[in-house]
Amino acid sequence: MALKTLIFSFLVLSFHTLTTAATADQPSFFVRSIDREMTEKKENYSHFRFYWQDIVGGANATSIPIIESIPKFNLTSTFGLTRVIDNALTVGPNRTSKLVGRAHGFYVSTSQTEYDFLMIQTFVLFEGVYNGSSITFLARNPINEKVRELPVVGGVGRFRFAKGYARVNTISFDYLTGDTTVEYNVYVSHYHH
Ligand SMILES: *[C@@H]1O[C@H](CO)[C@@H](O)[C@H](O)[C@H]1NC(C)=O
Ligand SMILES: *[C@@H]1O[C@H](CO)[C@@H](O)[C@H](O)[C@H]1NC(C)=O
Ligand SMILES: *[C@@H]1O[C@H](CO)[C@@H](O)[C@H](O)[C@H]1NC(C)=O
Ligand SMILES: *[C@@H]1O[C@H](CO)[C@@H](O)[C@H](O)[C@H]1NC(C)=O
Ligand SMILES: *[C@@H]1O[C@H](CO)[C@@H](O)[C@H](O)[C@H]1NC(C)=O
């Protein structure tokens, strides 16, 4: 009998707690639902292609080391190397081709055994309706693999609620200067407004 009463009290209490919680979860003074039509009906899935120009040398370098590789005996990578970038995004592989945006951010060599970079960068675009909109990547980039996939973690402007990924491959590396051109095929959802 005592146990039944206890269970009953527990259920009543739980129900009370649940209803209280539900009320607390309702839209209130600091949160409310947004109209899903604002997002769903305006959703686009698009494929952008950019060429990412990592210019490390010369007077016009856009990729600057801010932390050098951590010296350690027998290390087979550039572990620790960190570069801040303001890299051009061009329409073609030639770095003199039309500039359509810039990659702002930095990348960090985060493996002690391979050439694997953590990419933290935002692509800000300049063209047409995309002018001023940006897409953000946070990704592992093992550069010796032919094709790498970098997740899109968000965006603003035309890229609000962005989700997607980029398939990237290095198309040229200048052994003399260290300059690199990487092709980015970005598959991303975005919104027209
Ligand atoms: C986005 O989608 C809308 C309709 O859903 C369409 O009219 C528009 O052309 C699309 N834009 C792009 C860039 O795909
Ligand atoms: C740097 O850019 C300027 C202006 O575009 C150009 O005249 C110059 O030749 C460039 N220098 C190098 C080393 O690429
Ligand atoms: C460095 O690598 C060599 C060859 O792999 C190995 O024989 C040596 O023990 C290593 N030294 C250290 C300090 O790890
Ligand atoms: C890139 O474009 C410039 C100017 O149009 C040209 O002189 C150069 O040969 C091109 N480079 C390559 C690798 O195609
Ligand atoms: C992009 O926007 C900036 C600032 O609003 C403006 O100065 C620039 O001309 C625009 N570029 C294009 C290609 O529309």
List keywords for this structure.
single chain, 193 residues, mainly beta, eight-stranded antiparallel β-barrel, 15% helix, 45% strand, globular, binds 2-acetamido-2-deoxy-beta-D-glucopyranose
Task: Describe this structure as you would to a colleague.
There is one protein chain. Helices cover 15% and strands 45% of the residues. The protein binds 2-acetamido-2-deoxy-beta-D-glucopyranose (NAG) (5 copies). The site of one 2-acetamido-2-deoxy-beta-D-glucopyranose has 2 residues, from loops.
Annotate the secondary structure layout.
Blueprint: H1 2-25, H2 37-40, E1 43-54, E2 63-67, E3 82-90, E4 99-109, E5 116-125, E6 134-142, E7 148-156, E8 164-173, E9 180-191
Antiparallel strand pairs: 1-3, 1-9, 2-3, 3-4, 4-5, 5-6, 6-7, 7-8, 8-9
The structure holds 2-acetamido-2-deoxy-beta-D-glucopyranose (5 copies).
